[in-house]
Design brief:
about 180 residues; mainly beta; Jelly Rolls; six-stranded antiparallel β-sheet; five-stranded antiparallel β-sheet; 2 helices; globular
Protein backbone atom coordinates (compact mmCIF):
# COMPACT_ATOMS: atom_id res chain seq x y z
CA UNK A 1 0.00 0.00 0.00
CA UNK A 2 2.72 2.48 0.91
CA UNK A 3 6.24 3.26 -0.28
CA UNK A 4 8.45 5.04 2.24
CA UNK A 5 11.34 7.46 2.08
CA UNK A 6 13.57 8.51 4.97
CA UNK A 7 15.68 11.63 5.50
CA UNK A 8 19.15 12.46 6.84
CA UNK A 9 17.41 13.46 10.08
CA UNK A 10 16.30 10.23 11.75
CA UNK A 11 12.66 9.63 12.61
CA UNK A 12 11.04 11.57 9.77
CA UNK A 13 9.35 9.34 7.19
CA UNK A 14 7.63 10.29 3.93
CA UNK A 15 4.85 7.87 2.96
CA UNK A 16 3.54 7.55 -0.58
CA UNK A 17 0.18 5.75 -0.72
CA UNK A 18 -0.72 3.99 -3.94
CA UNK A 19 -3.37 5.81 -5.92
CA UNK A 20 -5.66 4.32 -8.55
CA UNK A 21 -7.18 6.50 -11.29
CA UNK A 22 -9.61 5.94 -14.15
CA UNK A 23 -12.28 7.92 -16.09
CA UNK A 24 -14.32 8.40 -12.92
CA UNK A 25 -11.53 9.94 -10.85
CA UNK A 26 -9.20 8.36 -8.35
CA UNK A 27 -9.05 6.29 -5.18
CA UNK A 28 -6.41 6.29 -2.46
CA UNK A 29 -6.28 4.60 0.93
CA UNK A 30 -5.14 7.41 3.25
CA UNK A 31 -5.06 5.41 6.47
CA UNK A 32 -4.35 1.79 7.34
CA UNK A 33 -3.21 0.82 10.83
CA UNK A 34 -1.38 -2.23 9.49
CA UNK A 35 0.50 -0.21 6.84
CA UNK A 36 1.37 2.52 9.35
CA UNK A 37 2.63 -0.01 11.90
CA UNK A 38 5.00 -1.36 9.24
CA UNK A 39 6.12 2.10 8.09
CA UNK A 40 6.47 4.09 11.34
CA UNK A 41 5.88 1.61 14.16
CA UNK A 42 2.77 1.34 16.28
CA UNK A 43 1.36 4.78 17.06
CA UNK A 44 -1.80 5.71 18.92
CA UNK A 45 -3.48 8.69 17.29
CA UNK A 46 -5.92 10.56 19.53
CA UNK A 47 -6.84 13.72 17.62
CA UNK A 48 -7.32 14.78 13.99
CA UNK A 49 -6.95 18.44 12.99
CA UNK A 50 -7.52 20.33 9.76
CA UNK A 51 -6.54 23.84 8.77
CA UNK A 52 -7.50 25.75 5.64
CA UNK A 53 -5.11 28.48 4.53
CA UNK A 54 -4.80 30.92 1.71
CA UNK A 55 -1.58 31.25 -0.28
CA UNK A 56 1.19 32.85 1.75
CA UNK A 57 -0.08 31.80 5.19
CA UNK A 58 2.74 30.47 7.36
CA UNK A 59 1.98 28.46 10.52
CA UNK A 60 4.69 27.42 12.95
CA UNK A 61 7.10 26.37 14.22
CA UNK A 62 5.02 24.56 16.85
CA UNK A 63 5.59 21.73 19.32
CA UNK A 64 4.54 20.63 22.80
CA UNK A 65 6.80 19.89 25.77
CA UNK A 66 6.92 16.45 27.39
CA UNK A 67 4.87 14.73 28.65
CA UNK A 68 2.50 16.21 26.05
CA UNK A 69 4.85 16.00 23.04
CA UNK A 70 2.99 15.16 19.84
CA UNK A 71 3.85 12.98 16.91
CA UNK A 72 2.02 14.13 13.77
CA UNK A 73 1.08 12.38 10.56
CA UNK A 74 0.45 15.24 8.13
CA UNK A 75 -0.80 15.55 4.58
CA UNK A 76 -2.24 18.12 2.20
CA UNK A 77 -5.64 17.07 0.83
CA UNK A 78 -6.16 20.21 -1.29
CA UNK A 79 -3.61 22.70 -2.61
CA UNK A 80 0.08 22.62 -1.76
CA UNK A 81 2.44 23.55 1.07
CA UNK A 82 6.07 23.64 2.07
CA UNK A 83 6.33 21.61 5.27
CA UNK A 84 9.26 22.18 7.65
CA UNK A 85 10.43 19.99 10.54
CA UNK A 86 13.19 21.18 12.91
CA UNK A 87 15.00 18.62 15.08
CA UNK A 88 14.73 19.84 18.70
CA UNK A 89 15.97 16.62 20.31
CA UNK A 90 18.91 17.90 22.39
CA UNK A 91 20.76 14.55 22.27
CA UNK A 92 20.38 14.24 18.49
CA UNK A 93 23.40 14.65 16.19
CA UNK A 94 21.09 16.67 13.91
CA UNK A 95 19.81 19.01 16.67
CA UNK A 96 18.84 22.34 15.10
CA UNK A 97 18.78 21.01 11.54
CA UNK A 98 15.64 21.01 9.45
CA UNK A 99 13.97 19.14 6.62
CA UNK A 100 11.73 20.85 4.08
CA UNK A 101 9.18 18.82 2.08
CA UNK A 102 6.77 19.88 -0.67
CA UNK A 103 3.34 18.36 0.08
CA UNK A 104 0.47 18.59 -2.39
CA UNK A 105 -2.88 17.07 -3.23
CA UNK A 106 -1.64 16.41 -6.78
CA UNK A 107 1.18 14.13 -5.58
CA UNK A 108 -0.37 12.66 -2.42
CA UNK A 109 2.09 11.97 0.38
CA UNK A 110 1.97 11.76 4.15
CA UNK A 111 4.80 12.90 6.40
CA UNK A 112 5.43 11.31 9.81
CA UNK A 113 6.82 13.89 12.23
CA UNK A 114 7.69 12.14 15.50
CA UNK A 115 7.80 13.86 18.90
CA UNK A 116 10.97 15.92 19.23
CA UNK A 117 10.42 18.14 16.20
CA UNK A 118 9.12 21.68 15.83
CA UNK A 119 6.77 21.75 12.86
CA UNK A 120 5.32 24.34 10.52
CA UNK A 121 4.17 24.90 6.98
CA UNK A 122 3.61 27.61 4.40
CA UNK A 123 0.57 27.36 2.12
CA UNK A 124 1.43 27.79 -1.55
CA UNK A 125 -2.12 27.92 -2.93
CA UNK A 126 -5.41 29.47 -1.83
CA UNK A 127 -7.64 26.99 -0.05
CA UNK A 128 -4.79 24.67 0.98
CA UNK A 129 -6.22 22.02 3.32
CA UNK A 130 -3.66 20.62 5.77
CA UNK A 131 -4.60 17.52 7.79
CA UNK A 132 -2.88 16.27 10.96
CA UNK A 133 -3.28 13.06 12.95
CA UNK A 134 -1.77 13.63 16.42
CA UNK A 135 -0.47 11.19 19.04
CA UNK A 136 -1.27 13.53 21.96
CA UNK A 137 -4.06 15.96 22.67
CA UNK A 138 -3.53 19.69 22.30
CA UNK A 139 -2.26 21.03 25.63
CA UNK A 140 -2.02 24.85 25.66
CA UNK A 141 0.30 25.01 28.69
CA UNK A 142 2.81 22.70 26.97
CA UNK A 143 2.64 24.44 23.58
CA UNK A 144 5.72 26.31 22.39
CA UNK A 145 6.57 28.26 19.26
CA UNK A 146 9.99 28.85 17.73
CA UNK A 147 10.17 31.82 15.38
CA UNK A 148 9.73 30.79 11.78
CA UNK A 149 12.23 33.42 10.60
CA UNK A 150 15.02 32.84 13.12
CA UNK A 151 18.36 33.36 11.30
CA UNK A 152 19.91 30.56 13.40
CA UNK A 153 17.68 28.10 11.51
CA UNK A 154 18.06 29.65 8.04
CA UNK A 155 14.80 28.25 6.66
CA UNK A 156 13.75 29.29 3.17
CA UNK A 157 9.97 28.92 3.30
CA UNK A 158 9.45 29.64 -0.38
CA UNK A 159 6.97 32.48 0.23
CA UNK A 160 7.45 36.25 0.24
CA UNK A 161 5.87 38.39 2.94
CA UNK A 162 4.07 35.51 4.66
CA UNK A 163 0.90 36.06 6.66
CA UNK A 164 1.82 34.99 10.21
CA UNK A 165 -0.30 35.02 13.38
CA UNK A 166 0.65 37.28 16.30
CA UNK A 167 1.30 34.15 18.37
CA UNK A 168 3.76 32.76 15.82
CA UNK A 169 5.43 36.16 15.39
CA UNK A 170 5.99 36.24 19.18
CA UNK A 171 7.72 32.84 19.29
CA UNK A 172 11.12 32.27 20.86
CA UNK A 173 14.35 32.36 18.90
CA UNK A 174 15.97 28.94 18.55
CA UNK A 175 18.61 29.92 21.12
CA UNK A 176 15.86 31.15 23.50
CA UNK A 177 14.22 29.44 26.49
CA UNK A 178 11.58 27.57 24.44
CA UNK A 179 12.46 24.30 26.15
CA UNK A 180 11.54 25.55 29.64
CA UNK A 181 8.14 25.00 31.26
CA UNK A 182 5.96 28.07 31.98
Amino acid sequence: MIATETFPISGLVLLRPRSFADDRGSFMETWSQRAMDEAIGSQRFVQDNESISRAGVLRGLHFQLDPHAQGKLVRVSRGAAIDVCVDIRRDSPTFGQHVKVHLSAEAPTLLWVPPGFAHGFAALEDGTVFNYKCTAYYHPQAERTIRWDDPALGIDWGVRDPLVSDKDRAGFGFEGPWHLPN
